UniProtKB/TrEMBL annotation, chain A:
One GO cellular component term: ATP-binding cassette (ABC) transporter complex
UniProt cross-references to SUPFAM superfamilies, sorted A to Z: MOP-like (SSF50331), P-loop containing nucleoside triphosphate hydrolases (SSF52540)
SMART domains: AAA (SM00382)
Domain ABC transporter: 8-238
Annotated organism of origin: Thalassobaculum litoreum DSM 18839
Pfam families: ABC_tran, TOBE_2
Record-linked PANTHER family: SPERMIDINE/PUTRESCINE IMPORT ATP-BINDING PROTEIN POTA, SPERMIDINE_PUTRESCINE IMPORT ATP-BINDING PROTEIN POTA
Record-given protein name: Spermidine/putrescine transport system ATP-binding protein
Key word Nucleotide-binding present: yes
GO BP field: putrescine transport
From TrEMBL, chain B:
Cited Pfam families: BPD_transp_1 (PF00528)
Annotated ABC transmembrane type-1 domain residues: 83-290
Lineage, broadest ranks: Bacteria, Pseudomonadati, Pseudomonadota, Alphaproteobacteria, Rhodospirillales
Protein name: Spermidine/putrescine transport system permease protein
Domain of life, per lineage: Bacteria
InterPro entries hit by this protein: MetI-like (IPR000515), MetI-like_sf (IPR035906)
Amino acid sequence: MNTTTPAVQVRQLCKNYGSVQALKGVDLSIAAGEYFVLLGPSGGGKTTLLRTIGGFHKPSSGQVWLNGQEVSHLPPDKRPTSMVFQAYALFPHMTVLGNVGYGLSLAKLPKAEVRDKSMAMLEMVGLSGYENRRPHELSGGQQQRVQLARALVLGRNILLLDEPLAALDAQLRKDMCLELKHLQEKVGITFIHVTHNQEEAMTVADRIALIADGELVEQGAARDIYRTPQRRFTASFVGENNLLSGNVTAVEGDTVTVEVCGQPLAVDRRDLPVRAGETVALSIRSELVEMVSADGTAAADGCSLSGTYAESVYLGLTLSHRAALADGTEIVSRVVGESDAPDPAPGTAIRVQWKPGALRLHVN
Amino acid sequence: MTDATDTGLGGLPPVEPFRPTLRERMSGWAFYIPIVFMVLFFALPMALTVVFSVFERTMFWMEPGFSLLAYENFFFSARLENFLASMGYSLISVAVSFCLGFPIAVFVRKSVPQAAQHRVVLLFILPFMVSEIIRIFALRPVLQRNGLVNETLLNLGLIDEPITALLYTHTGVIIGEVLSFMPFIVFSGFLAMEAVPKYIFEVCDDLGAGPVRRFVDVILPLAAPGIFAGAVFIFVNGLGVALIPNIMGGPGAVNAGLIATQAITALDFPLAMAVSAIMMATLMGLLYVGHKLFDLTKILAPMN
């Protein structure tokens, strides 16, 4: 395959259900061999996008190109995609081997070949010795592996995974995430994985696209999405960001001054089109926020806010201190590690501060 | 004990074993009522049917004894032929009902929105609100020589002579049976399709299973027990309900039920009993074969 051709290209894709717009003109390009994750809240359109790529939904308008071919008119089995479904979507009356081999036997391959290929694929997903079991004799994780084998054995080069781990418990989901990642590296084909779980997304993804409200909000590597969210929605959905809103009072070169609760904050402009007097959103990750006593050492200019302490929440690895600004906006400071220092009393005046550059500006 | 009192549980009475109330103890027995009912009003009469079938025939009733005359009367007469023929025609009714009814069940499960599915199936109950005798009798003006069907076909110029095979024949009986019993295959098919999860259709789309392979490889095996239940119901009724051949049938177009009814009319009670016993034995035999083939327990224990 020509590696310069993207595996998936979606152009101006729209999907309407009656008056509801599930997809509003999505453009997307996924390189061959990439592990791509569609991340977003439920009902945001990510599953609709995946199913339209797979051919289970007809787009209302727009095009789907797979491996450089326009496929919008093709049914699922004529596309170079295969699907792993959310539910344990196995044939309940067939054995594991029967499930995996069914697609190949439909393609009229010789029986011996069907068997060999299916067994090899079962070994690949770690289910050797389970070939004669029935689906109801398997655990949830094992059933999803059978689905993986059933999809991969077809030899199509784009694998679609529709919330494949949603029905598994938390620990199993973590293990399966890594396995999926390693499996993708081993087989080298394109994986497109839909999930609403950001930890799952960040574990497996080469690149993540955030889908919400029928639109592609932002895409990029997991690190970039987490550290430098471009859009306010990304900041609110990924990680644990504090969101503030304020008025722009001055724009000087690359620095924008935003007034939040009467206190000026300095933030990098990032070439965004912003004018004085505008209302903008600011975000800062909670682990970058430090809480100090109100009369402590002065922080860098424009990098602190005063507020009142509310409470602390102990989460094991991290401890979250919650405080409120003058207008009631909640701000969270998350610290790692054990500290035996007593928390301030609720209502104590405190300051939250951060390093210059930690705060991010978002305009609509 | 004293320790417990010391740690703050003082004053509480000792823990006593749980004693069920009278009502709770009685409720266990309530589950045996259906068994008593079934034995009294089903198993016992069935056994008596076999016993009576070997009694001696008298003028108006029968008297205890042992005679195989009734069986001889059945096996060495046209009755056996008619009985076997009615089994064949019952099978045709089952097949026609299945071909018409099961696609409806699949369609309702697959294409009708979840919320409306049960309402659509309820539509098939509507005909049952009209007495069966009226429903069947109403077919006569439709199917008879100068009935609706023949008149229409004649007027359209599709036929030159009225089709007389539609009534007072095996065809008539089959039409009557399909009309009466098809809803059962819709119901049982609809319930059987519950064992066929909706995702199966998408998986088949993905793997490239066309409609025929999908039906043979996936839907049929999964829905088989339910389909079998519906088929048995129709077959048994096709064999046993005397009303339909009585109204729609004619010479030779009878079933086991009508043979027994005719024997009763002729006051030959042992023969009527023998026909019933033979029908029962036949059906139980078929059910056993069906169970061996399809494992009917599956319908009670859906797969997951």
